[in-house]
Amino acid sequence: MLGLAIATVLGWSNLPSILLAVVLAFFFGYSFTAVPLLRAGLTLRTVIALALAADTFSIVVMEIVDNAIVLAVPGAMDAGLGDALFWGSLAFALAVAWVAAFPVNRWLIARGRGHAVVHTHHGH
């Protein structure tokens, strides 16, 4: 959401807007995993490996679904920050992307991967 909001304010076209949104999604997704692990005393190398393993597949799924929906909603990429279409399409896309990513995360956790691996390191 932040990437599309920033790109909208800057008047960017669709491709750079989507690219910024994806880059920020990965940055924040990895950060939400990495910061607690760093605070738990793990090395940066270990944290990077864990964050990549835990979050990459889920973020990829969310970004594909999220951006595909926003691109598919007529006028959503041209709407301004003051338009309900802008925020409504982002909220709808995020909700659908969460639903799409949920089974991915469950599948990973059930196999001892994804955030299941990360949770074993909390509190070190």
Kindly describe this structure.
- It is a single chain.
- By secondary structure, this protein is mostly helical.
- The protein has one domain (2-119).
- It contains five helices and no strands.
- The chain has helices spanning 2-10, 14-39, 44-72, 84-110, 115-119.
- The model has no long low-confidence stretch (mean pLDDT 90).
What are the defining features of this structure?
elongated; 124 residues; mainly alpha
What's this model, at a glance?
77% of the residues lie in helices and 0% in strands.
Topology:
Elements: H1 2-10, H2 14-39, H3 44-72, H4 84-110, H5 115-119
Most strands sheet: none
Number of helices: 5
Question: How many strands appear in the DSSP assignment?
Answer: 0
Sketch the topology as an H/E string, one letter per element: HHHHH
Low-confidence stretches: none
By secondary-structure content and strand pairing, the structural class works out as mainly alpha
Determine the strand fraction and express it as a percent band: under 5%
What is the total number of structural domains?
1
